[in-house]
Amino acid sequence: MSSRATPKVTLLMGGPSAEREVSLSSGRACAEALRAAGYVVDELDAGADLAGQLSAARPEVVFNALHGRWGEDGCVQGLLEWLRIPYTHSGGLASALAMDKTRSKAVYVEAGVPVVTSGMFDRAAIEADHVMTPPYVVKPNNEGSSVGVYIVSEAANGPPVLAPDMPESLMVEAYVPGRELTVTVMGDRPLCVTEIISEGWYDYHAKYTVGGSHHVLPAEIPAEIEEACLAHALTAHEALGCRGVTRTDYRWDDRRGLDGLIALETNTQPGMTGTSLVPEQAAHVGISFPELCDWIIKDASCDR
Fold first, then answer.
1. In a 3-state reduction of DSSP, which class is residue 244?
2. In whole numbers, what is the pLDDT of the chain averaged over residues?
3. End position of a domain, from candidates 136, 156, 174
4. One of 23, 104, 267, 276 is an active-site residue; which one?
């Protein structure tokens, strides 16, 4: 990164993924925060010729506010490594691992982070009959923000009918009842535990619509659950090889105590919108949004 105090920043947002709109919201919010921190920021809607766009922009550092496939799965990270432009958040391998739910669960298990029973199945088999005893969840192996998630209830009369645009191979995992918890990790520091309360389950609408969910922080949970959430989030972050800021999500069945805590996934580029959890947790521990974005920029590098 440039040795100047405030390098020229190109902020990547938008892009072609299913999470384009929330990425645009994150990007605009981060651009505003970075300008408040004294940076010169160019906002760039990432297109098919991203290499050409970056060459024209000539950034000294890239703030990656892309979400979902392509921008969060190692592809853009690989391009930025090739161009030798310092960038924020995790590197290519960690990004690809965290986005691939099957492989990230294997890393979790090896590191001692609790996971739920799951498997990969062809969509034809999933639609033909129950491939797992209900209740269970069907979702793409490499999407985020609850995109394409189906919950099959215990009372379901039959298997789910999936949308035509769903992949041919999908993850099916046992449904975990209970409370939604999440932890932000900033570098080597887990910040706090938030409980997310929403009507029904925490879907895309609940995540990114004002009033769609209510956040309680710090979460009103027993000390042993708080400690486990913080520890597992840091373990997941480090085991996956992540850098910068991540957020690890959990379900906790409070009837089962510590045995009811399950890690769902680690987000390598979590949302940074007005309803997002990471800025809330940072503020709770005394870090303003401009300070958070400034820290993320200063953490940027190649070879991540």
1. coil
2. 92
3. 174
4. 267
Q: Does 303 map to a domain?
A: no
49 and 189 share one domain: no
| CATH number reported for the structural domain that contains residue 69 in this entry | 3.40.50.20
Q: Which are the contacts of 3, defined by CB distance < 8 A and separation ≥ 6?
A: none
- Whether 208 is a known active-site residue: answer yes
Q: Into how many domains does the chain fold?
A: 3
224: left (phi over 0), alpha (psi -120 to 50) or beta: alpha
From the list 145, 250, 294, 304, the catalytic residue is 145
Q: Which of 14, 15, 17, 19 is catalytic?
A: 19
Q: Which residue of the set 136, 265, 276, 294 is catalytic?
A: 265
271 in catalytic set: yes
**Is 141 annotated as catalytic?**
no
Whether 103 is catalytic: no
* Residues spanned by the domain of 267: 98-114+177-292
Predicted TM-score (pTM) of this structure: 0.91
Task: Give one word for 217, left, alpha or beta, with left for phi > 0 and alpha for psi -120 to 50.
Answer: beta
| Known catalytic residue at 145 | yes
Domain for residue 2, yes or no?
Answer: no
Q: Exactly one of 247, 260, 276, 294 is catalytic; name it.
A: 247
Q: Is 165 known to be catalytic?
A: no
- Of 189, 209, 191, the closest CA to residue 200 belongs to 209
- Tens of pLDDT, residue by residue over 115-153, are 999 999 999 999 999 999 999 999 999 875 456 789 999
